[in-house]
């Protein structure tokens, strides 16, 4: 069960959801609080798998430093409210809280208000995801369904199916195409202009 604590600060409301599903909380990885939040309507029916195209990591301290650097880049250079991804998985097979289950992320332009973005630290054009990383993400998704954050009939997609990118990388994309709920033809859910 997720516990939610909210604090009203003038017109800004900040909520902290105690991480569930085995997720390393933002507080534990020493992340910054979001500048602003927009709540994600749940349950969400789209899960987007990505990679960061950064170096990978295998130790907790390396992974946490990479995530802090990504968050700083997103908030300082790109002017996002928070780290863009909903969750980030390291080479240490730990899942880290990004914008989380409750808040709209900034991971896939045009789809942020209707999806969860899960990003693997590393470049999966070059690297193979480990069985432990893959299992961690499968468990996160399963828990998301059990907790009511994800619809039981959610669609799983690779980032590149929705925008022009190489993400999640050839090797990770090849793997997720074998997962239940993978949506081969994304045209039914694509934003139409």
From TrEMBL:
SS bonds (residue pairs): 21-143, 57-63
Domain N-acetylmuramoyl-L-alanine amidase: 32-169
Superkingdom as given in the UniProt entry: Eukaryota
Residue span, Peptidoglycan recognition protein family domain: 21-163
Gene Ontology BP, a term: innate immune response
MF terms (GO), sorted A to Z: N-acetylmuramoyl-L-alanine amidase activity; peptidoglycan binding; zinc ion binding
Entry keyword annotation includes Metal-binding: no
Protein family membership: Belongs to the N-acetylmuramoyl-L-alanine amidase 2 family.
Subunit and interaction comment: Monomer.
Record's protein name: Peptidoglycan-recognition protein
Organism: Pararge aegeria aegeria
Upper taxonomic lineage: Eukaryota, Metazoa, Ecdysozoa, Arthropoda, Hexapoda
